[in-house]
Amino acid sequence: MKEIDFLLNDKMNEECGVFGVINVHNASEVMYYGLHALQHRGQEGCGIITSDSKRFYHLKGEGLVTEIFNENNLKSLKGSQAIGHVRYSTNGGGGIENVQPFLFRHTTGDFGLCHNGNLVNSNELRKELEIHGSIFQSSSDSEIFAHLIKKDTQKDRQKAIRDALNQIEGAFAFLALDNEKIYIMRDKNSLRPLSLGKLNGGYVVSSETCAFEVVGAEFIRDILPGEILTIDHLGNMISDSYAEKVYPNMCAMEYIYFSRPDSVIENVNVHSSRKEAGRILAKEAPVDADVVVWVPDSSVSASIGFSEESKIPTEMGLIKNRYVGRTFIKPSQKLREKGVKMKLSAIPSIVEGKRVVLVDDSIVRGTTSKKIIKLLRDAGATEVHMRIAAPPITHPCVYGVDTSTYDELLAAKHSVEEIREIINADSLAFISEAGILRACNRKKMCMSCFNGKYPTYLYHAIKDANKDGKF
Fold first, then answer.
1. For site-directed labelling of 308, which of 166, 215, 251, 336 has its Cα 20 to 30 A away?
2. Same domain for 231 and 274?
3. Active-site residue (options: 16, 46, 114, 251)
4. Alpha-carbon distance 88 to 43, whole Å?
5. What is the extent of the structural domain holding 312?
6. What is the CA radius of gyration of the chain?
7. In a domain, 262, yes or no
8. Is 251 a catalytic residue?
């Protein structure tokens, strides 16, 4: 992440998004629009591999989809099969060597690979593979999975993939492509979303359903937890499972923050779930106020829900400058102090003389919350009451989100009242865990960042433990 991005961004960031195209003419063009629809999941790099059933064509780079791909180079990516990726670097770091998809050469046949998520046993697997002679070209988890596949020298790639999947632990949505088939894989805990759609007699697969609308595809179904779905270049489809037991542990932050509002995750629309979270939050933590203001942009839906339930009008009290995030200017100390004003501006005519309810989706480090509240007070707000449409984030995420240490999390060390004092709010409340489950219409999902109940064994995935050494 660029230095100024870190200074201005106090949010969790998802690792990446994947998109696949099967048996569709000019697959690279469809891929371009699919990746563009997933750009919010990663802005550091992107790539595409295509196949015409005879050979592979590969292009990737650091930057946005619109910066890396154009009409000319898309024409060079021939074929009706493709996999693509947008990246936000967490585990493995940045650099062109970590931009996906990867293309691997092997005696059993070449293949491309990309994934969304994080393997919690990556260090152990990497060491074991290196001891047995594997040489790594990147620090990405995806390459570990590829080496596990390559260990199996049999011609049956389906079996090799199944055996490899049974050796990894964590959150993942993998896409693999050879010259005849695409392999679609989702972890047994269903921590990361992955859906299948139909397009022009072929298929597309995406981390989020919002991309289907963009490319004109029809949603078919979600990829099942623990499923290996194989589709060949003739359209034949085989569904297999690598896991004896599967679990409904979709990541709560996919609903709360990561996914686009127009996406549907396991039959629940993201906008609707966020709006319902706002309603529930208004019931759980009512407040006397004059106006509800959202923190742009992922809090809009929750703000609407809070407003409708509380009967307090909601207004656009903060304006976001969308052209700050990718600046390459190293900020001076003076610029650091004005960092939030570069990204957000308050509208005095909306908040002056008003008691403001400030709705946000989460508090991670708390630095931005404190500065936004100051912005509102400087613009004339008489009171600022903060309401958060997620429970307090008290534990690191090990499944592909960039909060891997306790030091990064304000709620890990402070009570709600202490956080209120730190950010200088007149009041502060978070939605309950039961409330967010109701909002997402679920009985269960991964809320480990709120309660420390991780659905997998952790290995050494968390970099910092509590003082007593326990997670």
1. 251
2. no
3. 16
4. 6
5. 270-451
6. 23
7. no
8. no
